[in-house]
Amino acid sequence: MNQILFDQMRTNALYNIECCYAHLAEAKLCRKNRKLEHQNLGRFLRIDELALSHEKKLFQLKESLDQIAAEEKEKTDHKINSLQRKARHRKKKILKEIEIASDRLKHANESIEISQLSLQSAADQSRFETLSLQSDSSFIFNTDKIKDQLQRTKDRAEKMRMKKNEWEKTINDLRKIEEARKTRSPLRKNGSSAMIKNIMES
């Protein structure tokens, strides 16, 4: 009976030892898990710090880019406004020159008509003059003078026409530039268009 009791106690002791080993292994595993949790928590904290740092840098970069964009926009707007003012001033000047050239061309055409009438009158008069008058040197000189004056007037009128065409081409180029830039203030077309129309008709 003592042997049976001893064997039972021995079996219980061995079972208790196994249980202790199992608890020890479990404790080691829990300790390892807690250590891993602490390590992961440290990693998460570092990741959060890096994320905050990157967000701060991105915010600063965005502010810097916005400031640069605003400065560039201000410079561009100032340059565009300056070019528009120069274009309007240039256009007014060209329109004024075209108006003056149109008046000169009109006067030149009138001078040509007057000279042609004078030449025609002189030619008609020569048909009814006597032979002595036709041979008079002063009459021949006056006729040649009228012809020279008529030729000079024609040459001057041709130059005025060429210059007018150049000015009209410049006006058309300025119109295309202003339409491409989509200016904020539309051009006052009433006076300008009427003036150009009159010039083209003349």
From TrEMBL:
- Record field: compositional bias (Polar residues): 190-202
| UniProt feature coiled coil, ranges | 143-177
Chain residue ranges for the region called Disordered: 180-202
The alphabetized UniProt keywords are: Coiled coil
Name of the protein this chain belongs to: Uncharacterized protein
